[in-house]
Write a structure and sequence with these properties.
Keywords: Membrane, Signal, Transmembrane, Transmembrane helix. About 15% of the residues lie in helices and about 30% in strands. The protein has about 725 residues and is of the alpha+beta class.
């Protein structure tokens, strides 16, 4: 009898041997999977953490600024989240931890996502013009990071999608001070973007004489570049140099050694005819600039305005000029009137309004002379001016969202709120205001719908405390950036490999949700469900932190005694612990099967993140870690792993030595048979990897930020209507 195996058997046996040896050798030494985040212990100022910064047990590396929110009419608010980038103006709280960077908050001021940990821990991470934009046909996040001289685009999982170089395109060295942080406009359909630029030059004698200044003086020229979104190639460029004379400035040459910022561009937008709408703070002027030759087509406001005001409306130090709508004869534009400029030249007080306001202006460009008038205004909630920065956003439901940024140093007291945002109804009614009571700065704030799907795992902290003669396991869970979580399920167990008992289900409650179990769970994992009961992700298995001197004989329930708990319907549960030994005796494997096959909905298996069998612990506090009894498990596992590796190595050598005695070379016929068997195997595997593709899919989760419009279509401001103004001109507008 010939001792010859079939080609399939030869291949299968050898592959299985290699696979078995490889996995057994690596198992005890496997590098941990990527943590959901890098744990850092932050030493915060206790006097500030409770009232001015959020702190989280599950994310001790985050210290998000805390908003003071006042809601005047919740039902009238437009749906959406706040997008704001916060940075340190005076470095007052350098010991608070990671908080400088882009943020997403909900309408109650609760944190949704912190981008403070995106940057290096060795420097402040500042972002500017943080907002939702379309890139590659998808909702994305964009912002400017001046310390990297780049514009960053993130996808819905908060991973970097584009890294766009800004600043001096001809220089390979990043110069943060020469990075213009004021505006980033992305035109996805045209594969183009607009970025701003800064150049530095010396004033000539003629220009210095115009402003009655004697001596040498450096000057900053501002401009913008139209560039390819894909390649970064500059397609068109404009600068205030040679186009805007220094005589238009409303500010003094206050710092000639560093450079006189006489123009200070802060927004640019491409108009439907291809020309550009540009706002310059230090000339208090809005310009229309030709896309053909860069010439000034008209000026609105400032020293050389081409428009005649109908009524009171002159603005000072404005920001964020945007086109609202237009026709052949009229333009509607919005802007934030800051009502002040720094270091004003004498005689320019006539341009100022008593306090900051959002404006919608109607420009009649068909009349001679051209005219402009205010058709709607939204006053500063505290009737104060705004020192610098800020923006005005018209929301889809016709509400108005304003970032007043920083209060004027002439009106604010030290450590009074410096950052203020507000939302207004179309008629100007104040619906919401929110402030930060710390000395920080924002540049702009926006409101958008958003669905965040982080590719990380939920972060979990678990500890046990004594409550009388009993014990209580306290678990805190968060998932930075997730917007679809509705319910958290807590599972516990006595051993890491068997965390299979459902202990409680709790509705999501803010960025970090607390779950409690009346008893001791040595190991826990937390599962995220959406509003349809579909599983989104599961955290890693976490070992519960125990107090110093804790032993099982202290009257605390033995881990093996953990009782089963009923699995409540995630759409009909409350915030109470679910107890009911008689209602459920199934382990987590049964729950997993039910959820993965019955409730996955629009989330297929590839989208579900499950790390419940991970061997990684969350990092714990050094003090509590020192109190843990020494665990010999890993030493035993290490020894067993070495033994298995050695055995596998010897077996492989023996196998390679004796293999030629048992197997013949592979013939052509055998090769054809092998390929046929491989085709069958891969077909079967594909069916297993993609079960039920033809089954009817459940309804996709809806956007939690979307909702109904904020009321009926009444006028914006007093007697204001977009279409009416454009159809009839400005006649009769109050």
């Amino acid at each position: 009898m010939s001792c010859t195996a079939s080609p399939a058997a030869r291949t299968s046996r050898f592959s299985l041997l290699k696979l078995f040896s490889f996995h057994l050798c690596l198992l005890p030494f496997a590098w941990p999977a990527a943590q959901a985040h890098d744990i850092q212990r932050i030493r915060s100022d206790p006097s500030l953490s409770d009232t001015q910064f959020f702190s989280y047990l599950s994310r001790p590396d985050l210290n998000a600024p805390k908003w003071n929110v006042t809601v005047y009419d919740e039902q009238a608010l437009a749906p959406g989240y706040w997008f704001v980038s916060i940075y340190d103006g005076d470095r007052t709280f350098v010991n608070v931890g990671n908080w400088s960077g882009p943020y997403i908050y909900d309408q109650t001021g609760e944190l949704i996502w912190s981008g403070a940990t995106l940057g290096s821990s060795r420097e402040r991470y500042e972002g500017f013009d943080f907002k939702v934009t379309q890139v590659d046909g998808e909702d994305s996040l964009s912002f400017i990071h001046p310390r990297d001289c780049a514009a960053i685009v993130l996808d819905q999982s908060y991973q970097e999608k584009r890294h766009l170089r800004i600043g001096d395109a001809a220089s390979s060295k990043c110069q943060p001070l020469m990075t213009n942080i004021h505006d980033l406009q992305i035109y996805d359909k045209d594969d183009e973007l607009i970025i701003m630029s800064i150049t530095r030059d010396e004033l000539d004698q003629h220009d210095m004489a115009v402003v009655n200044f004697n001596g040498s003086c450096a000057v900053y020229h501002n401009g913008f570049r139209l560039a390819s979104l894909s390649t970064g190639e500059v397609l068109w460029e404009w600068s205030s140099d040679k186009n805007i004379p220094v005589s238009e400035a409303l500010v003094t040459p206050n710092n000639c050694e560093r450079g006189w910022d006489y123009f200070h561009i802060n927004s640019v937008e491409r108009l439907p005819d291809g020309d550009y709408l540009v706002s310059a703070r230090h000339t208090s002027t809005v310009y229309k600039i030709s896309h053909k030759d860069g010439a000034i087509i008209w000026r609105l406001n400032g020293h050389n305005s081409d428009f005649v005001w109908i009524g009171d409306g002159q603005f000072l130090g404005q920001h964020d000029a945007r086109l609202v709508s237009h026709n052949d004869t009229h333009l509607l534009i919005s802007l934030l009137d800051n009502a002040m400029v720094p270091w004003p030249l004498p005689g320019n007080s006539a341009f100022g309004y008593p306090y900051a306001r959002g404006l919608i202006l109607a420009l009649d460009v068909s009349s001679d002379p051209m005219t402009v008038q205010v058709v709607a205004h939204y006053d500063h909630p505290m009737k104060e001016d705004s020192d610098s920065r800020g923006n005005m956003e018209l929301l889809p439901g016709r509400n108005v969202f304003l970032d007043w940024s920083e209060r004027s140093p002439l009106t604010r007291e030290y450590l009074t709120p410096r950052v203020l945002i507000s939302e207004h109804a179309p008629n100007g009614k104040l619906l919401l205001s929110a402030s930060l009571d710390i000395v920080v700065k924002t540049y702009r704030a926006y409101k958008f719908p958003w669905i965040g799907k982080p590719n990380t795992l939920p972060s979990v902290h678990s500890d046990v405390v004594s409550v009388g003669d009993a014990s209580q396991t306290r678990v805190h869970v968060s998932w930075n950036g997730a917007t679809e979580v509705a319910v958290w399920n807590l599972y516990g167990g006595a051993h890491r490999g068997k965390v299979n008992k459902l202990l409680t289900s709790v509705k999501r409650n803010g960025f970090e949700t607390a779950l409690t179990y009346e008893g001791y769970a040595a190991f826990v994992t937390v599962e995220a469900l959406n509003q349809h009961g579909n599983r989104l992700a599961r955290s890693k298995v976490v070992k519960t932190i125990v107090p110093s001197g804790f032993v099982a004989s202290d009257g605390i329930e033995e881990p093996e005694q953990i009782q089963d708990h009923a699995h409540t319907d995630p759409e009909h549960n409350d915030d109470q612990t679910t107890n009911g030994d008689t209602n459920s005796t199934e382990d987590m494997a049964s729950d997993d099967a039910a959820l993965s096959h019955d409730n996955m909905g629009s989330h297929d298996e590839a989208e579900y993140i499950d790390e419940s069998d991970s061997t990684d612990d969350m990092s714990v506090d050094n003090d509590t870690a020192a109190a843990q009894p020494f665990d010999f498990t890993w030493i035993l596992a290490l020894g067993a792993g070495l033994l298995v590796c050695l055995t596998a190595f010897v077996a492989t050598i023996i196998w390679r030595t004796v293999r030629p005695q048992f197997y013949e070379p592979l013939s052509n016929d055998d090769g054809a048979e092998l390929e046929e068997m491989r085709a069958v195997r891969y077909t079967d595997s594909d069916k297993q990897l993609h079960p039920g593709e033809d089954d009817e899919q459940a309804e996709s989760p809806s956007d939690p930020a979307k909702g109904s419009d904020a009321g009926e279509k009444d006028g914006m401001g007093e007697g204001f209507d977009h279409e009416q103004v454009l159809l009839t001109g400005t006649d009769g507008v109050k």
